[in-house]
Specification:
With about 300 residues, this protein is an alpha/beta fold. It has helices at about 1-40, 70-80, 85-100, 105-120, 125-140, 145-155, 170-180, 210-220, 240-245, 255-265, 275-280, 285-300, and strands at about 55-60, 160-170, 185-190, 190-195, 195-200, 230-235, 245-250, 265-270. It has a six-stranded parallel sheet with strand order 3-2-1-6-7-8, sandwiched between helices. Strand 7 (about 245-250), helix 10 and strand 8 form a beta-alpha-beta unit. The longest helix has about 40 residues, at about 1-40. The chain is globular and about 85 Å long.
Length: about 300
């Protein structure tokens, strides 16, 4: 009995502690539930329904589409005998250098552009537009990231316009935008006269700072408030575009963009598997030539409409 009496206080003490823990937990839960509406007020739902002065701007490669649109388009052009294997070898070296070095060599870029433009020089714009539709079905339709597609749809459902903004040729960008039900596309523009490519670009590829300028110009023309707009990209090259808007998103980001996004407290989304994320930016050796050929061949497929 003495032993039993010795145990009783411990049991009572344990029960008291349990009651205290339960009361503390209930109080914490009550306070937390009261704070939730306040947090929601600090960060309203986005995109905002009916805000017609807001729009969304999406990069294409590795943001909306797995891989590069130019790569997939180049595959289709090569299949249709637009250029030869020896062109692939030259473009492969230029693209591999860029991928591994992580910077653009101006001489390489100029040579690649000149070579690509010579490939489509003399071809009719209508011919390339028709081919673009076919190539979308062959190589691109199954490579759209569902997560990014859902983000774009959220803006559309809110009544906002959604634009692709890409260094890919404007014709193929417009095909993709149309197939996805988006508003339209900004892309690299190549010159044509009488519906035939001349072999010259209008300005430069829509890349880096040029994207930001295109978005700024479109926003002015559309009467948009950039502070209410959103932009989405995977690449640090698009930091100028992302920095223009009030709602920047890093999607499947490369290392530099991920670091910058964290420093700036931008939102991040990654729809890749861990293995794919680790390898982003470095193509398999067997695919380098095809990627390069696609890049060089397709950049010429946008034009000035005269």
């Amino acid at each position: 009995m003495a032993a039993l009496g010795w145990l009783t206080p411990r049991r009572r003490s344990a029960t008291a502690r349990s009651v205290l823990a339960g009361e503390a937990s209930a109080e914490a839960a009550r306070k937390s539930s009261q704070e939730i509406p306040q947090a929601a007020e600090r960060e309203p739902d986005f995109p905002v329904l009916g805000d017609d002065r807001a729009a969304a701007f999406f990069d294409l490669d590795n943001t909306v589409m797995q891989g590069a649109a130019l790569f997939h388009f180049g595959r289709g052009l090569y299949k249709r005998k637009f250029f030869e294997t020896r062109d692939l070898a030259r473009f492969a070296w230029q693209q591999a250098w860029f991928r591994l070095a992580g910077v653009e060599d101006p001489e390489h870029m100029q040579e690649a552009r000149d070579s690509a433009l010579s490939i489509v020089k003399g071809h009719r714009v209508a011919e390339l537009e028709t081919i673009g539709e076919e190539i979308y079905d062959e190589y691109m339709a199954d490579r759209i990231w569902p997560g990014t597609r859902a983000l774009a749809q959220a803006h559309l459902d809110a009544g906002q316009k959604v634009w692709l903004v890409t260094a890919a040729p404007v014709e193929i960008a417009q095909v993709i935008a149309r197939r996805l039900g988006l508003t339209g596309a900004l892309g690299t523009v190549a010159e044509s006269v009488g519906g035939v490519y001349t072999g010259a670009l209008v300005g430069e590829p829509l890349h880096g700072p040029a994207k930001a300028e295109a978005v700024r110009a479109l926003a002015a023309a559309e009467g948009l408030d950039l502070n209410r707009c959103a932009a989405y990209s995977d690449s640090h090259n698009d930091i100028p575009m992302l920095s223009l808007v009030g709602h920047p998103y890093a999607i499947n980001p490369d290392a530099k963009l991920r670091r910058h996004a964290r420093e700036q407290d931008w939102r991040l989304r990654d729809y890749r598997t861990g293995r794919k994320a680790a390898k982003v930016g470095i193509p398999a050796a067997a695919g380098v030539g095809a990627v390069a050929g696609g890049t060089a061949a397709a950049i010429a497929l946008s034009r000035r409409r005269r």
